[in-house]
Amino acid sequence: MIRLLPALALLLAACAGEGPVRAPQGERPTIVSLNPCTDAILAEVTVPGQLLAISHYSKDPRASSMMPQTAAHYRATGGTVEEVLALDPDIVIASSFIAPATRAALEDLGMRLVTFDAANSVETSVAQVRELAALAGNPSAGEALVRDIERVLAAAAAQPATVEAALWQPGGIVPGERALVSDLLRRTGFASYSAARGMEQADYLSLEEVLADPPQVLLVAGSEQGQRHPVLDQFPGMRREAFDTRLLYCGGPTIIRAAERLAAIRRNAT
């Protein structure tokens, strides 16, 4: 099968249709991203024609951390070896959870594969921005994005007094304290409702628990029946706010939008 892949790649390339114009050879490396979180960062730190494709997840406006108009500029792949080979990038960027068979096939074919873990703090995300910008041969663009992140976080920083908030994620679960969104909550003046009650990453928060012990602010980032129950309207002392699920998991430019949203909620809660 491996011996047949180069020929299949040529066939796929011939049938690929329209896509981004390829960056001139030798200037900066061409890149295919298989990770929706690195997609968004690479869109900020590459030059036109350099990012050959993004993850198909970034084309779903319900889940993507990229703005739809940005994602529309790029071809997407399903992450298969054949699709990547057809594009013939200099670098493939993926999640550290890439399927072992896909990793092995790409490496056996001599492709340069760089993987990234999910960022669990602002500092981790900033380091990833700089690493991705360096891989793209455009460190100045990475520094520009870092400055934008730092500026927004500085503007969003609240006074020492904190407001207790519960973040109710899809599936009715809460984030752990080592999640990036938890770091952003702390930085924007929120104390963790779930941590104060001994809850950890992906623990389930029931409607009954919320009703028995309501937080000052309930951030609803899911659409389960309990999270939309009309009984939640009966607690005037609890402020309920929608929080876009697209702001939950990725760093880079997503931090900017998430921090701005949290700062606005924080201002309205005092």
Describe this structure in words.
- The chain is α/β, with parallel strands linked by helices.
- The chain has 11 helices and 9 strands.
- The protein folds into 2 domains: 116 residues, Rossmann fold; 111 residues, Nitrogenase molybdenum iron protein domain (Rossmann fold), CATH 3.40.50.1980.
- Strands 3-2-1-4-5 form a 5-stranded parallel β-sheet, with helices on both faces. A 4-stranded parallel β-sheet has the order 7-6-8-9.
- β4, α5 and β5 form a beta-alpha-beta unit.
- α8 packs across α11.
- The chain is elongated.
Which labels suit this protein?
270 residues, alpha/beta, 2 domains, 5-stranded parallel β-sheet, 4-stranded parallel β-sheet, 11 helices, elongated, disordered N terminus
Low-pLDDT residue spans: 1-25
The succession of helices and strands, N to C, reads HEHEHEHEHEHHEHEHHEEH
Strand content: 5-15%
The overall pLDDT, averaged over residues, is 90
Name the structural class.
alpha/beta
Number of domains: 2
CATH top level assignment of the largest domain: Alpha Beta
Main β-sheet: number of strands, strand sense, barrel status? Answer: 5 strands, parallel
SSE blueprint and pairings:
Blueprint (H helix, E strand, L loop, with lengths): L4 H11 L15 E3 L2 H10 L5 E5 L12 H4 L3 E3 L3 H7 L3 E5 L4 H9 L3 E5 L5 H14 L3 H18 L6 E6 L11 H8 L2 E3 H4 L10 H6 L4 E4 L18 E4 L10 H16 L2
Parallel strand pairs: 1-2, 1-4, 2-3, 4-5, 6-7, 6-8, 8-9
